[in-house]
Amino acid sequence: MDQQHGTGNTRADDALNAGVAENLVATAPGIDLPEADFAVPIYQHKGRRAAASFIFLTITLDMLALGMIAPVLPRLIASFMAGNVSGSARMLGLFGTVFAVMQFFFSPVLGSLSDRFGRRPVVLLSNFGLGLDYLLMAWAPALSWLFLGRIIAGVTASSIPTGMAYMTDVTPPEKRAGAFGLLGAAFGVGFVLGPALGGILGSVNPRLPFWIAGGLSLLNGMYGIFVLPESLSLEHRSPFSWRRANPVGSLSLLKNNKVMFGLSAVLILGYLAQQSLMNVYVLIADYRYGWSDKSVGWSLALVAVFSGFYGAGLVKPLVKRIGERGALSFGLIGGTLGYLMFGFSKTGLLMLWGIPVLNLMSVAWPSAQSMMSREVKPTQQGQMQGAIQSLRGLAGIVGPLMFTYVFSKTFGQGAAIHAPGASFYMAASLLAISLVVAQWVRPRKASAEAAT
Question: Is the confidence at residue 82, as pLDDT, over 80?
Fold first, then answer.
């Protein structure tokens, strides 16, 4: 692709913008883009900004829905298990594993489908699919139906990489880190509000959060029909191939060059480290500090607040000041120190002080994804985002087993070695390794795109 220098566009850029603008009008007639504006970069159009806001809203609602059902799903599973506590726990673990496996396999499929048919149909179909799935789970008369719903949820929730690819389409290279940071804030908002809202609704009826989550997803899909234009022009679409869409094939894109391979290693190590929060944080807060459910909930809300604040307010100015690579290193250093503070904390107060330090990681992931987006062609953005989501799914499969095993061997009466913070030390070590790997990466500048 011809590169832009300063504020001027090459003829190829003008043609590209015109082609995408024409496609935008064809797919969203309600958005008025005068012919004279076709030479304006596509990310400057008001319709594009509105569409980007819709993607932010979609990811927020997706995370809100997932958070809403988190506190009530165990109770709903238990209602089918006739008081079998151990069986309910095993079934809950199976539900979580199946969800992660579906994410691993189907994220690259939906990402590749969006490269073939465009982002708009994949995002909208995922909205409607997720909405109908939550309604299925709300209605489920037997555990088998609930399990089927969880499988479908894992497939339809894989729309997140398509949303990420959409943001790549409509955002100039030098601003992508900030855009990905905003999407990270959307994760945080959903994570804060979801469990709280789910707990309130679940106290009325454990199925009510599923009805509400389904209704929100369907309403958002209907709203998207009117405001979401297509972002991927016809000339930037690529044929669908199962060779690229399967997890192994999609992950092969991540070893395309040294930059992609290095940043992929940084991401998978970071995603694995995050699994310590998801799987042993509550256990340690309970057994080590004696926190109540309410205290644990407030502390997790604090995690999400700082994550959202950093993603929305810190990524953009930090990248502008020290660059994406510097922001990546800054975030990894913060995350490493935060996990060490968690591990060494003998009181809950020190654990709380570690939260704002730990969540500096929130500036690392948008920076890494922004750098990676410049290493692939426009026709491969969906595949790349799907592959990244597969990394997250792979971490979701391996991480729970790894961290709960370490916790079981280092805490309690049957511990082989008494080291209550061992799980967090392991997470810190993973981030420290990723920091070393990040220093080896030399990405191209933000003003350049991958060659087409």
Answer: no
Class of domain 248-443: mainly alpha
Quick one: pLDDT at residue 290?
Answer: 83
The whole-model pTM stands at: 0.71
The rounded percent of the chain whose pLDDT value lies above 70 is 83
Residue with tokens 């990681």: 361
CATH 1.20.1250.20 domain position(s) in the chain: 11-230, 248-443
Measured distance CA(237)–CA(244) in Å, rounded: 14
Residues 6+ apart with CB under 8 A from 338: 354, 355, 357, 358, 359, 360, 361
pLDDT at position 135: 93
Burial profile 283-302: b = 16 or more Cβ within 10 angstroms, e = fewer: bbbeebbebeeeebbebbbe
Q: What is the 3-state secondary structure (H, E, C) of 180-211?
A: HHHHHHHHHHHHHHHHHHHHHHHHHCCCHHHH
Q: Which pair of tokens denotes residue 38?
A: 């076709």
Q: Please give the helix or strand (H or E) that residue 443 lies within, else none.
A: none
Angle (nearest 5°) at CA 225 between 137 and 53: 90
